[in-house]
Amino acid sequence: MIQFAPADWWVTDMYSFITQKPGNIVIEAIENSEVLQLSRSDQLQLFDDVPHFERYFRIITEKSLFSYRRRLMDNMNLTAAERYTGFCERYPTLITQLPQKLIASYIGVTPEFLSKIRATLKNKSK
Fold first, then answer.
1. Which range of residues forms the domain containing residue 94?
2. Total Cβ atoms within 10 A of residue 27
3. Which listed residue, of 38, 58, 60, 63, carries a Cα 20 to 30 Å from 50's Cα?
């Protein structure tokens, strides 16, 4: 699991989109979603036709880069419990919507270990 996109977020394989090379990332919706398709050439034409979209897409791209970097640094520097706590803070609406195995995959642990983390955190909060 590489990324989650709560309601009203955009998600794409940015590398594939920008380089126009085949991607190797699967995007899967776990609930009904609206899918918009935009080719790179159409995006560039949109930038020419409506310059404000260039700023909009730049902001989306910056947020995506920030998110990937934060996740990489979290995986390198935080414990599994800290990664889970960070996930809960960043995606509070997803905690109840996602199967535990997806959350475990995202933070880099087994579902069984995630259960132990959750139990430990629950006991600490009592």
1. 79-126
2. 13
3. 63
